[in-house]
Structure formats: C-alpha cells, structure tokens
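I am writing to request your help with a piece of structural work I have in hand. Here, with my thanks, is the record as I have it:
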Amino acid sequence: MIKSIAIAAAVAGLGLGVGASALAREDAKPAASTKANRSCFFANQINGWRSENNDRTVYLDVGVKDVYRADLFGRCLDLDDALSIGVETRGGGSSVCDGLDVQIIVQSSMGPQRCPVTKLTKLTPDEVQALKTRKTSK
C-alpha cells in the first residue's frame, strides 16, 4: 500500500478517526506483551513529515501528537528538497510496528526512489518538544 503524505485537513481528519479505532483495539490487548515498548500505527494516520537536513532520517507526524523517527538504510537522495513523500507498507497490510514494515518513497531527479527504513522509534513528549524547537524542513 502506498500513501502520499501532504499536510491537509482531510488527511488529518481521517487519521484521527482511524486513530481512535486503533486506540480502542490497543486497549483490548493483554497487558503483558513480549515487546513492552512496541508501538504501532496505521500508514493512513501519518499526516506530516520533516527531515533534519540530512538524507538518512525522517520524522513522521502520526495522529494528533505522536512523532516517529525513521532511520533509513542508506542515503535517500533529494529527501530535503521533496515537497511530499510516499510511504509503502510491506506485506500488503497498513499497520506499521517496525522499521521493516515500511519504506519511504521520494521523487528524485532520477525518478521515484525507495528508501528502506531500518529502525522506527516513537519519540517521547520531551523529544517531540525538542524537535519542534530545532529548525527542520517540511
């Protein structure tokens, strides 16, 4: 599944609706989990993105307040100049729980470039605030 990301009210509204149903399912899961820090979201909950002026890191805005850092496998050319990016989930599903579940697609001067994600980290509220105070693109 491929999703193009552009900040728009319609996309944000859709993400909020899906987010509510995802939270309801999250509460239904047993408290004991094999991966306590594992946090999942649906690709259509992504409503914005930015990079830190490098070609190996993307920050994804998910839902109302969550931000995930996506560390890329290698360089992703033209990432800093891109007006929008795409997100492709692997395996035909729309759930993203791990870096291996998703890849970033950037339109480069040589055509679409697929940039595999190796690590996906949900930022803490303090990290999100620190990110907002730093100058980032997009």
Notes: The longest strand covers residues 111-122.
